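To illustrate this point, we now present one chain and its tokenised fold:
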Amino acid sequence: MEVKLRKLNKVFRRMDTELPIMENKDALDSTPTLNPQFTVTIRGWEDDKDEEVRDFGQRLCQLTREISNFIDLSRLDRIVIGSDYHEALASVNGEQAPVPTPTANEYGNGFAMATNIFRGDEVWSVVVIWTPLVRAIFDHEDPNQPLALHTFVHELIHVDDTRLFTTTYPGGWRAAKPRDARDAALQTIVHPCQAEYSAQRRSAFAAPEQGLMHMSMLKEVMSDVDEQVRKERLAYRLHGDVASLWKVVSERLGFLFQALGYALGHADWVLENRDDHPELASKFDAEIEALREMSKGWLIDASREAVQPLFNLTEWTNMGVYDPLIAVAERLLNEYRMSTSVREDGLYIDMPYTGIHDL
């Protein structure tokens, strides 16, 4: 896979403005994996130029087919590009499993997603992207072109990762169940880390400097999380509703792990390719050292190490591969004087009160 991605990187670096990738057939050594029935649907275009819309859709379809030489897109059903992102996402409603919720918080809003649908017992993917995010993908004069390409490939990596999980898990994807309620709850928190680490690391070649933004976001999230959890602990002492406490804490920690995945996945690609990006790699070195100095700085190396078994999977064997990341999440909860266990087949949150200083 790494060899193929390096070839994909070289192909994109030589992309022609008129016919991207197609003139580089000598770089390809495999058969396209894209489903023959794959389609691109465009729902709204800023200036309603039908010819421009058709041309963009055809070129995007062509580009996706070429990318499928390097990553397995055999379970990609279609791509939906929409000027109204939420309407485009809603257009897939009724097929999705389950209906997704775009990221939306004080750190930003998500406008691209690889969502899942059922075809019988098979899980397929639909990529939905907001038009302005991807419109510049073929315009090499547009400063947003690298970000557009990166966003597009990032979502296609999610498609490949979902295919790997749903087609290689022993006994079928429906057999992939957490051991108990505790594992289920903590997997929900840490899963975004592995998902975004993989997608970011495997697509970072398209926009290497973009990762600095993710490093900045991670720094902000790590700066805020202690106070966010402390606030919820205090609220819990007043209302006593542990379900309400856990909902907010798990959402906050889930986004923290998501931010870790984005930043560390991108950083690790840049550092792995230091010879090609020496100045940028030095910037990432400095950013990582600054993160390590923070109160939760141990998360950097711990998460990096814990995500590797998932990133390096060539086929799934069991859900125990999440255990290293779950251990990181439990350690983090312990620092907030919270611990998790199973009681009567359900999740139990232990948060003893030993004085006002615990708040």
Summary: The two ends are 47 Å apart (CA to CA). The first strand starts at residue 39 and ends at 43. The CA atoms of residues 137 and 149 lie 5 Å apart. Confidence is low (pLDDT under 50) at residues 15-28.
